[in-house]
Amino acid sequence: xxxxxxxxxxxxxxxxxxxxxxxxxxxxxxxxxxxxxxxxxxxxxxxxxxxxxxxxxxxxxxxxxxxxxxxxxxxxxxxxxxxxxxxxxxxxxxxxxxxxxxxxxxxxxxxxxxxxxxxxxxxxxxxxxxxxxxxxxxxxxxxxxxxxxxxxxxxxxxxxxxxxxxxxxxxxxxxxxxxxxxxxxxxxxxxxxxxxxxxxxxxxxxxxxxxxxxxxxxxxxxxxxxxxxxxxxxxxxxxxxxxxxxxxxxxxxxxxxxxxxxxxxxxxxxxxxxxxxxxxxxxxxxxxxxxxxxxxxxxxxxxxxxxxxxxxxxxxxxxxxxxxxxxxxxxxxxxxxxxxxxxxxxxxxxxxxxxxxxxxxxxxxxxxxxxxxxxxxxxxxxxxxxxxxxxxxxxxxxxxxxxxxxxxxxxxxxxxxxxxxxxxxxxxxxxxxxxxxxxxxxxxxxxxxxxxxxxxxxxxxxxxxxxxxxxxxx
Length: 474
Ligand code: HEM
Hints:
Layout: H1 18-25, E1 39-41, H2 43-48, E2 50-51, E3 54-59, E4 62-65, H3 77-80, H4 89-96, H5 101-104, E5 109-113, H6 117-120, E6 127-133, E7 136-142, E8 146-152, E9 160-166, E10 169-174, E11 177-183, E12 192-196, E13 201-207, E14 218-222, E15 230-242, E16 245-252, E17 256-258, E18 266-272, E19 275-281, E20 300-306, H7 312-318, E21 325-329, E22 343-349, H8 353-365, E23 372-379, H9 388-397, E24 402-408, H10 424-430, E25 442-447, H11 450-462, E26 470-473
Parallel strand pairs: 1-5, 22-23, 22-25, 23-24, 25-26
Antiparallel strand pairs: 2-3, 3-4, 4-5, 6-7, 7-8, 8-13, 9-10, 9-17, 10-11, 11-14, 12-13, 15-16, 15-21, 16-20, 18-19, 18-21
Protoporphyrin IX containing FE (HEM) binds at residues 2, 7-9, 57, 66, 73-75, 79-80, 82-83, 88, 91-92, 95-96, 99, 101, 104-105.
Keywords: Heme, Iron, Metal-binding, Oxidoreductase
Domain FAD-binding FR-type: 228-338
Organism: Sipha flava (yellow sugarcane aphid)
């Protein structure tokens, strides 16, 4: 067994070099074992993951899942096991403080190791229901580490923007009405927002800078609206998705959160050769819950942009560099996911997948209802399919609730089916099987080029669907 002074490297099995490990990390496999979510982990929760087949350890406040790393560890699995289930900071540093663990384990982050005290506390420490802001009521509650505001706007799908103006001053703008809260003490950014669109409930969690109970949340005052026509956004990351589609991550100007509902869009504006050019784009957050792009923060604006040969704005966006700015409008659109439907049929062509991604995510994670989703995704070639690996992973995880069918018009698909020119026949042939007894439970979304949308609409009308049963993203 190694001590702080003995060095004892082992021979790793073939296929377990550092390069193989990096390859595994980039393969899209979830090495965190928790779906890439960032968790708050208590010491007692950490202690439960102390087996070779379920191994977590913490180093300098970050919790890692090292189960997959076991056979790649140059000091051997048996050595690594000494640290699992614990805060291994000291042990790790004694043996090899120089090892760049953050980089090696970047795809294995489970979350932050947090103070045990937070978990011992009762769920709600202090609540108040008598605060009324404009036309809606507000509750708040706190624990040592955070406080939470809950707004009941009484309108479905309220417009929500939040801005932390100073560490202890936050502005909530709900349906265009803004209130400023001067908080009792400072909080961190970003906030964590949960919205139940159907009933207009907005929950905002703020992490306190310093642990402690507050006697009050602070004071409320009226303020100018923070909603403007366009906000400035800075490009922070850009990734290639296919040969002509990029995944772009933007940060809003200082500490702003701008909620966009699934299926709604924003206008993106940029000055090109002295002229303002703008176009609608549907943000795809939070669908990207893979670790492939690191941990995307709540307030990030995520866009999928296809560069068209004649598309001035799309080409401009695809050529942006980190630190470049664009302007982004308030959310627009009228799509509201049907509350009365439980089966969604989504028909998309190419980048028409963008509104579908948040709809799928929402349908699979809805706290209110279990939706079943059938996606029919039409592309020219397999290499054009946006995030196929991700869609396949999702449909494997939710195999009883999400089915994905790809139609390729320019090449054979991997199942050996012939290439299919996308026409009425092909869409009809691949249309999900319907249960005729519960036709009223189906809601259909269509998004593609105008000709494609027309074709799909014709087919669904032939199948007896009415205007209220479907939505075409134009
Ligand atoms: C906390 C429990 C751990 C123990 C007891 C442990 C033990 C050891 C031992 C005995 C060696 C061989 C001796 C040496 O090269 O100095 C070693 C090497 C190594 N370990 Fe760990 N290790 C632990 C955690 C980790 C973690 C979490 C990582 C991942 C980032 C890691 C990465 C490495 C690397 C890269 C080497 C090769 C270092 C070199 O060649 O200089 N170890 N470890």
